[in-house]
Design goal:
The complex is a heterodimer of chains A (358) and B (357). Helix content of chain A is 74%, strand content 0%. Chain B starts with a helix and ends in a 10-residue tail after the last strand. The mean pLDDT of chain B is 82. The chains are: A mainly alpha (358), B alpha/beta (357). Chains A and B meet through loops of A and helix 7 of B.
């Protein structure tokens, strides 16, 4: 059954959840002018990666990547699935920790972090425990409820833009390749694509639809960076941790009865993130269940306890950012190795199939 | 059975969670100031808060003072001495007194942006008199409704186009931006009105460096697209109502010399005129008056090296970014600007105006 919609919605929710927080800050601090260049480089890499990944997956119409790697042998599973699982755990830790920090900065300044992280994880765990199908169905529900709010607020954030801040457009300065924050910005691209390999055979989707959706999503990447830039200018925007959130705060709508739009925006995005963490937990547990055949029903709980403990150990924002940076190695490994290996396995299996038929 | 019991136990826990409250203070234990006054005495800050308090059928306004090395400390002192907790959530207007504005507001403004307890949308005002006196007078005129000071700056209430409307985030932007400064309204307490508008302060990098008049502020607003709608332009023979205005700008750089041509397109309707004035002469007079004002404003901007009109924005694509850093000091004073005004008289009211004789 073709259920592209579920997959597309999930893709949109996950990426929307990512791009409005760390991503603008990373891009703005990576380059002084011509920010569209690092953004577009990121987007092109992203498109190439998901194309390769889905191309590879298309040779195995009824398998997910766990089955593909398992069939390819023990070594392949260890070399590829191991890092994927580790990366997923890291992503959950960083996301939970970072977003509870954001929530506490923006509105719950009295609430202790441990309780926020606890409840975030609790909800995500519950979602994850219900399995993949439930996650994708929840995605539709959340999209219906919150996507209109997010889109409305996204457009209202254009209120204070001064388009002349877009200049200077061109740049000869490519020093962002040497900047740490440029590589960190790939967080937004690398976090959300892996799930495309897990949804088969639960949901079948057309890879063309996902690609079209990804192309239409590029403006969101661009504007999440450019809205703060056009409102404040590079010199000011680079002083913010979360430029987009500050820009939201400066939007003044007389006719709206709510004073702080940011709250609605943030809460909607947090639901997306909760769903995303649920998805990642589910992916990790699917991997671990395949390779650790004992205590299958307790693995999720154990994993969550580990994640929660690590989140508690992290005392300050600095360490979150360092984790973010150390995770880059895994991030690029996952971003490059997984799609390419899947494509190679796919081509090989196709060759084998052709030979057998001949 | 066990499952049902667990569920029954979990559901009440959920109810506790759903309220989302943690260390929450009830609304009747909070004070919600709407105006804050900041004045610097030597190295210490003096903070004045205006807190409307509902009493039977009316609102009383309460003024409280605090002194501290930082604004937060001063507010903390007030909070400590008061019976309720101070919550800055509804802060709408922040008033600086003139000496502290001239000294620089960078630290205070950055503090507001950092801590987020004051909304970056709060309006910034400078008062040109003793801040204690200003607040005392304001208190008198504010009762019983308690919000008039804010209404003065609210676009759908008492705001008029001669008043600059600058918010905390805009002042913050001016601290760092290469090509953008702001103007902040300068007021003092009026005799029988709430306030007396004295013009606007030119703010450069968070510091007051000069002052412009109300008429010049109108131009400043027009430049920023806060349209001059509804403004009455008084001339020798007549007054007109500016219905709408648009501006078009062209910028060019020739031999390292910046030129800019700005055309102001006005749609006006005539309010008052003496019998012998023709439409043509009104147009001509508008042109000369506005051009003069623009030139005067430009001269002030250039001498204070603060780009409140954002003229540098028009050269962002012509001057490389490394050079743009010096826009205020290097380029702005040398800028040559050419203003022209094109007026369309949209309607003449009920009476006919004489045509060309």
């Amino acid at each position: 059954m073709n259920k592209s919609l579920h997959v597309l919605i999930m893709y949109i929710l996950v990426h929307l959840g990512f791009i409005f927080f760390m991503y603008p800050g990373d891009i703005i601090s990576s380059s002084e002018e011509g920010h569209w260049i690092p953004i577009l480089i990121g987007c092109i890499v992203h498109l190439l990666v998901i194309w390769t990944y889905m191309k590879g997956m298309s040779y195995f119409p009824d398998r997910n990547i766990i089955q593909i790697y398992s069939e390819a042998g023990r070594i392949a599973s260890v070399v590829f699935l191991g890092p994927v699982a580790l990366y997923s755990v890291m992503v959950s830790i960083i996301t939970i920790r970072a977003y509870s920090e954001v929530i506490s900065i923006v509105f719950l300044s009295n609430t202790p972090l441990w309780s926020m992280m606890f409840f975030m994880l609790l909800i995500s765990t519950y979602v994850a425990s219900k399995g993949g199908e439930a996650i994708f169905r929840t995605g539709i529900l959340i999209a219906v409820l919150f996507l209109p709010v997010v889109v409305f607020i996204f457009f209202s954030s254009f209120q204070n833009v001064d388009w002349r801040y877009v200049f200077p457009m061109s740049t000869k300065d490519f020093s962002f390749f040497a900047k740490r924050s440029f590589y960190e910005s790939f967080f937004a691209f690398a976090g959300g694509f892996l799930f495309l390999g897990f949804v088969q055979p639960l949901f079948k989707y057309k890879s063309k639809h996902v690609l079209i959706c990804a192309v239409f999503f590029i403006p969101f990447f661009l504007f999440s960076v450019y809205v703060p830039l056009l409102t404040f200018g590079q010199a000011t925007a680079s002083t913010f941790h979360f430029p987009y959130i500050v820009t939201m705060d400066s939007v003044h709508l007389n006719w709206l009865m709510f004073d702080r739009l940011t709250m609605f925006f943030l809460l909607s995005l947090v639901t997306f993130i909760l769903l995303f963490v649920g998805l990642v937990l589910w992916m990790t547990v699917s991997i671990s269940k395949r390779f650790i055949p004992i205590f299958k029903s307790y693995q999720l709980a154990a994993l969550v306890i580990v994640i929660y403990s690590v989140c508690l150990i992290i005392p300050e924002w600095e360490i979150v950012q360092n984790l973010f940076w150390w995770n880059s190695i895994l991030r690029f490994y996952v971003l490059i190795a997984v799609p390419i290996s899947i494509l190679i396995f796919g081509l090989r299996s196709k060759g084998k199939g052709a030979r057998e038929r001949a | 059975m066990l499952k049902t019991i667990t569920r029954m136990l979990i559901i009440p826990c959920m109810a506790g969670m759903l309220s989302g409250c943690w260390d929450n203070k009830d609304i009747n234990h909070r004070s919600l100031p709407i105006t804050m006054g900041v004045s610097m005495v030597g190295e210490t800050y003096k903070v004045i808060l205006l807190i409307p308090e509902p009493v039977e059928r009316t609102t009383k306004v309460r003024i409280v003072y605090g002194i501290g090395k930082t604004i937060t400390e001063a507010v903390d002192h007030i909070s400590r001495d008061m019976e309720s907790d101070i919550d800055m959530l509804h802060m709408k207007v922040v008033v600086f007194d003139k000496p502290s504005a001239e000294k620089g507001m960078t630290d205070s403004i950055s503090g507001f942006m950092r801590a987020r307890d004051i909304s970056p949308k709060a309006v910034v005002v400078i008062c040109d008199e003793d801040i204690d006196h200003f607040f005392k007078r304001t208190k008198q005129t504010m009762e019983p409704s308690g919000t008039t000071l804010y209404n003065y700056f609210e676009k759908n209430a008492g705001w008029s186009p001669e008043v600059a409307l600058t918010r905390i985030w805009q002042v913050y932007r001016s601290i760092y931006s290469f090509t953008r400064d702001v103007a902040i309204p300068v007021v003092k307490s009026g005799n029988d009105t709430m306030m007396q508008h004295l013009g606007s302060a030119i703010i450069k990098n968070g510091r007051m460096v000069g002052q412009i008049s109300s008429e010049e502020t109108l131009l400043f607003n027009a430049f920023n697209g806060e349209s001059a709608h509804g403004k009455i332009e008084v001339m020798q023979h007549s007054s007109v109502l500016i219905v709408s205005n648009t501006m078009s700008h062209e910028s060019k750089v020739v031999n390292n010399q910046m030129y800019m041509t700005s055309r102001i397109n006005l749609n006006v309707s005539i309010l008052e005129t003496s019998s012998h004035v023709t439409n043509d002469s009104i147009k001509k007079e508008l042109d000369s008056t506005l051009t003069d004002r623009c030139n005067a404003l430009l001269a002030k901007i250039q001498s204070s090296e603060a780009d409140i009109l954002g003229l540098g924005q028009f050269f962002r694509n012509k001057i490389p970014r490394a050079e743009l850093k010096n826009w205020r000091t290097e380029y702005l004073p040398r800028l040559k600007m050419d203003f022209s005004v094109r007026t369309v008289i949209q309607n003449e009211g009920n009476l006919k105006t004489p045509r060309r004789k």
